[in-house]
Amino acid sequence: MSTYSNDKNLSESKTVEFFNNYFSENLTVSANEFDTVFSWFKKKGFDDVASKSITQILLNQAKKDSTNIFKILDTMNSYSRDKVSFIVAKILNATSGKTSKLGFESDRINNPEIKRNLVI
User: Fold this and answer.
1) Which residue has the higher pLDDT, 42 or 12?
2) Does 46 score more than 70 pLDDT?
3) Count of other CB atoms within 10 angstroms of residue 83
4) Which of 17, 66, 100, 101 is deepest in the core (most CB within 10 A)?
5) Nearest to 90 by CA among 69, 104, 79, 105
6) Residue 18: strand pairing partners
7) What are the extents of the domains in the chain?
8) Cross-strand partners of 29
9) What strand order describes the sheet that includes 3-4?
C-alpha cells in the first residue's frame, strides 16, 4: 500500500508526493493531475482507497514509461466498469508481491470428453 506524505485536501496543494511500498522511491506529481485521475476512478465506481491506490500506481508507471496518463484514461474511457475492474486487477497483480493475486472467477464449462473420466 502506498503512503501519501500529505493527506489533506489535495486541491489546496500544488503537488502530491507519495512513496512506493518500501519508501525507497518517491514521486511528485501535480495535484491537478492526481485529482483528475482519482476522480476518473471514483466516477467508474471505485471507493476512495482503491481510487488512490490505482491512481498512485498508474501515475508512477506512466512517469517511468514517459507516457501521458490522460492518453491512458482516454483509452479506458469507453470501457465498461467490469473491463476497467479487470484491468485494475491486472495492474495490481503486476505491481504487488508474489504472495497475493487478485482475479475473477469464471463459470467452468466442463468438456464432455473429459467429464466422463472424472468421478464427481
Assistant:
1) 42
2) yes
3) 11
4) 17
5) 104
6) 4, 27
7) 3-115
8) 16
9) 3-4, 15-19, 26-30
Say if CB 31 and CB 11 are below 8 A apart: yes
- Name the pTM for this structure: 0.63
The cell 464449462 sits on which residue?
Answer: 109
CA distance 55 to 15: 14
Give the integer Cα–Cα distance in Å for 103 and 61: 21
Tell me how long the chain is: 120
Count CB atoms within 10 A of the CB of residue 47.
9
- H/E run at residue 19: strand 15-19
Residue 40 pLDDT exceeds 80: yes
Q: Of 10-14, 29-33, 81-85, which gets the smallest average pLDDT?
A: 10-14
